Amino acid sequence: MNASTDITGATCRVVDGATPYRSEQGTVYAPGISAETVASTSLFLGLVTLPPGERTRAHVHERHESAFYMLSGDEVELWSGEGLAHRALARPGDYLFVPAKVPHVAVNRSAVPAVFVGVRNEATAQESVSMRPELDALVP
């Protein structure tokens, strides 16, 4: 679809959601609203799953902020900041905010998937992300 800003003939849409895929950073994304599904120009909304016993690879989002609402799972550790020195715990019902340009890693040490509703101000399903492999060993 063309992501043009011309709204002539535009209508509201109901979207079944796109096929889930494994992101470069390691989570499973199921896009609902994106440039690819509805020609969104500035918004992504979808489900994000961190499988049991897995973690993301260290990364930053150079150009966008991200927000998540934890739907289900047990507990997820969110390591962030330079040196990944800040540790926060998220549980179902919690909201998470990830600013642009902040290195981070999410860890799901539980035996069940952690499922989030995720939104960001970058519309593409395969977001721009910069991997930071030099930080991976900093998270136990």
From TrEMBL:
Keywords: Metal-binding. Gene3D superfamilies: Jelly Rolls (2.60.120.10). InterPro entries: Cupin_2 (IPR013096), GPI/OXD (IPR051610), RmlC-like_jellyroll (IPR014710), RmlC_Cupin_sf (IPR011051), UCP037087 (IPR017102). One of its GO terms (molecular function) is metal ion binding. The keyword Isomerase does not apply. It comes from the Bacteria. Residues 47-117 form the Cupin type-2 domain. Pfam families: Cupin_2 (PF07883). This is Cupin domain-containing protein. It comes from Zeimonas arvi. The lineage of its organism: Bacteria, Pseudomonadati, Pseudomonadota, Betaproteobacteria, Burkholderiales.
